[in-house]
Amino acid sequence: MMALGSREAEILRRDGKQEHKLLTPEQRLKLIDPYLPAPKAKIAQVEPRSRFGVRRLLRTGLHVLLYTIIHTIFSLYIKLRIAYHAVLDRIYSVVYYHHHTPELIERDVKGLSRLPKHLSVILSLEDNGRGGAELERLVSEAAEIAAWCASAGIPRLSIYEKTGILKGYHAETHRAVVRKLAAYFGPNYPALSVNAPHTPSIETPGGTLPLSRSSSSSSLSSSVETTQRHLSITLLAAEDGRDSIVDLTKTLAEMAQRGKISPSDISIDLVDAELNESVMSEPDLLILFSPSVELQGYPPWQIRLTEIFHVPDNQEVGYQVFYRALASFAKAQMRFGR
């Protein structure tokens, strides 16, 4: 931009002193117009377009082709994975089928280096529990898993079902487990206790059968071991998870406000002890009979160090999944943060 001449500058100063009453806007523009830079011509950039949209058609076709290739590869991978797990599951179900015989289950787990002392499973109620058949299936699965644990020598089992229907049928579940244990073990079934948080425990002392003098020493040893077994089952629901932590937090806060407990006494160990007593202790192994890891609101405090096992693409409760979980647990390395 060029500098204004002395004459034009003087005229603009006088116009400014008189509050722009000396010159009209048109006169001011005419006065400074020779000194303004020439406007640059705008060049319109127009994207060349094909007359028949060939480029757009090719681009769209390329996108569709890439999507089809990716979708085909992924679908093929999913089908191959499902087929592989189905074949592997069938092999395990044939090789390790228990035939409702505790001795066969004992033989299967005998070669494992260790077994969990506390096993937990998650069961799901399909179709929102419509009809009695779904509840019957759920109770039957719980009883079957209990029999597997008793046969394998696992002393404690916790069963989580989100809606709490098993807790509501506490006595019925206990009777179903007793019948299943009697079907597996006969008259010498293990002692049983079924409990739930804030619910009285139902206990069964277990069956005993006197042996004849002609029984062999190995049979006597096996019978004594069977009668000495005890299986403890805890039924859990979603209300025993985060809600119990919230309730404990409120209780501790109220006790601290009333002076019944010092705030310095509230620690991780105290919370852990209270939750272990009111809900359950931490399980060593958690088995999911589902195709993916979905905890469904399982008590979060109790699974900090728990080994979690599931079989991809599995949709049902099966002994082969149970055995594979025990085998995986036996090989797992518990470093506990080290």
Cα(first) to Cα(last) distance is: 73 Å
Q: Strand order of the main beta sheet, please?
A: 4-3-5-2-1-6-7
Which CATH top level class of the largest domain fits? Alpha Beta
Number of domains: 2
The geometry reads as: elongated
Q: Give helix % range.
A: 40-55%
Second rung of CATH, namely the architecture of the largest domain: 3-Layer(aba) Sandwich
**H/E element sequence:** HHHHEHEHHEEHEHHEEH
Number of strands: 7
Give start-end ranges of low-pLDDT stretches.
209-227
Q: Report the average pLDDT across residues.
A: 82
Number of helices: 11
β-sheet strand percentage? 5-15%
Specify Rg, calculated over alpha carbons.
38 Å
Largest sheet: 7 strands, mixed
- Secondary-structure-derived class: alpha/beta
Pfam families: Prenyltransf
Biased composition (Low complexity): 211-223
GO molecular function: ditrans,polycis-polyprenyl diphosphate synthase [(2E,6E)-farnesyl diphosphate specific] activity
Region (Disordered): 196-223
